[in-house]
Amino acid sequence: MVTSRKDFITIQAFQFVDALLVLCAFWLASLLRGGILTIFGGGAAEDGSLSAMIWALYIAVPFTPLVLERFGFYDRMGSKAAGSSAWQLIQGIFIIGLFISLFALFAKADGARRLILGLGGVMMFVLLFIRERISHSYIASRRRRGIGGERVIIAGSDTEIDELLADLDADAVADWDIVERFDLSSRATEELFDILKRESVGRVIFATKDAPFEKVAEAVEVCELQGVEAWIAASFIRSQIARPVFDSVGSKPMLVLRSTPELSWGLMAKEVIDKVGSFLLIVGTLPLWIIAAVGIRFASPGAPVLFSQMRAGRYGKPFRMWKFRTMVHNAEELLDQIKQEHGNQMDGPVFKLDHDPRIFPFGSLLRKLSIDELPQLLNVLMGDMSLVGPRPLPLYEVEAFCEISHRRRLSVKPGITCEWQVGGRNKITSFEDWVEMDLRYIDNWSLWLDFQILLKTIPAVLFGKGAK
Question: pTM of the predicted model, to two decimals?
Answer without folding.
Answer: 0.71
